[in-house]
Amino acid sequence: MDLEECVLITDSTLIQLSIHCPNLQALSLSHCELITDDGILHLSNSSCGQERLQVLELDNCLLITDMALEHLEHCQGLERLELYDCQQVTRAGIKRMRAQLPHVKVHAYFAPVTPPTAVGGSGHRLCRCCVIL
Fold this sequence. Notes:
The chain is α/β, with parallel strands linked by helices. It has one domain (11-108): Alpha-Beta Horseshoe (Leucine-rich repeat, LRR (right-handed beta-alpha superhelix)), CATH 3.80.10.10. Helix content is 32%, strand content 14%. It is built from five helices and six strands, in the order αβααβαβαβββ. Strands 1-2-3-4 form a four-stranded parallel beta sheet, with no helix packed on it. It has a two-stranded antiparallel ribbon with strand order 5-6. It starts with 10 loop residues before the first helix and ends with a strand.
């Protein structure tokens, strides 16, 4: 089920999906910015989450945290999890989840750390991240 960019999707929607879509295998919630860890809890505790859900896309769900990953540990059939630009999800949270579900392919992107003010000695700087060589 592709609900990507359906900006009015909330945790209540996930509760209804958990109840009325027991055969749900793939769910895209990318850019559904109202989804929280609580919605993921309901999804992961449902029969579809625990038994059938194989793919979950949560790209740009800004309210998702490492707690959602803990909830997803109940989803034994999960094969792929997309977490691009989930700014509150950490590498440590992903590592903990993968220890419980080592077969899950997790795709995540972490923006690089801003370089220090003085990069490469005496190079001329254009901005905080660029150096004229």
